[in-house]
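Weekly modeling sync, notes
Attendees: S.R. (lead), two postdocs, one rotation student

Agenda item 3: backlog of single-chain predictions. S.R. asked that every request posted to the team notebook include the full sequence so nobody has to chase files. The rotation student volunteered to paste the first one in as an example of the format we agreed on. Action items at the bottom.

Example entry:
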Amino acid sequence: MPMSSSGRNPAPNLFRILLINFGVLLCLGVAAEIGLHFVYRDGNPFLAPAKNELRIRDQHYTHGLKPNFDGFDAWGSNNVRIFTNSLGFRDGATRDVPMTTNRRRVVFIGDSFAESLGVPYEQSFIGLFAQALPAIDVLNAGVSSYAPSVYFEKLKYFLDAGLKFDEAIVYIDISDIQDEAILYSYDKNGVLQIGLFQTGADACSPAPRAPLQRPEKRWWENVSYIGEFLGQMRYSAQLARTIELASFEDLSRSRAVYSRDYARPSWTYSDDSSCYGALGIEASIDKAKRQMDRLYELLASRGVALSVGVYPWPQQLLYDKVDSRQARLWREWCAGKCRRFFDHFPDFFEHKTQEPDFVRSLYFWGDFHLNARGNQLLARRLIETFE
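Predicted structure, as returned to the notebook:
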């Protein structure tokens, strides 16, 4: 008696359906790759730098932040809500800033430490200062990668535009010396230009060596934009996990983020760094001082007081001393020029004696920027000294 149709084995039909679906998906993937390679012949569109609405170019002082921005900015694993005011300065909320005011006004400027990457404004040292002294109109003109050349050009631009303020507080970063050496220069028309780090040596990269090297691309990553993107995402996830689990020893190997020979912060305790371009360390320091001289003269001519602040990177706490060259340099420069000099090195070194894991407690782990606690420590001395 023949078997009824209801008793037939369904496996061959299911296998055929799966095979057809796989073939369709494979054809669609190949078609997508062909289309992507045809349209984006210069490189993988998935790995192109994402457009950052917050950070903009500026013809007067190289770069800044978009005015009245309300959005998010990522720093490592931190995705922080960012506000800027009508001047393009980081603030506690979007707001229109009048060029003149009856209130006492203080303008801060610095680089990524003053911008306070990775922390909300209210947890940044400038935000904490503003909360502690509400009678003062506090403005934060700091932006990542600034240096004395930009401090001068940006404050000059806003002074010429009619912005009135009583005091400028410049937080000079350890990295400003290298930035003046190989990042900033003036063109033939006297306009400040920002360039690329071109030191000719991997050891001189402004970014520290990653604790997990990216593996060689597999064959499918070389032929497929989608495969290359997935490979990069996998590496990024592994890198984040590696940093999270890394020991201090892992992150202090040669040219790593906490190593002694990481060139960017090493000039305060080492004279043999070759990562300061044709100028070298000493001439780069002289250039930074000359630009600060110009800023002092500009502010003095407009009746604006100048103050300066300094703070350590992890390397200074690890390999330098409390009376660091950074602190001595700008303390001596400030004599006869500055209303106040904020030296945060003693507070940070005191914290080091009290907290064995001081790097992790003050800085983002695997990075050299201050976390919320580091910002709080810096704000304490700033507020006490200012008052």
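Discussion: group reviewed the output briefly. The CA atoms of residues 108 and 169 lie 5 Å apart.
Action items: rotation student to repeat for the remaining queue; S.R. to check formatting next week.
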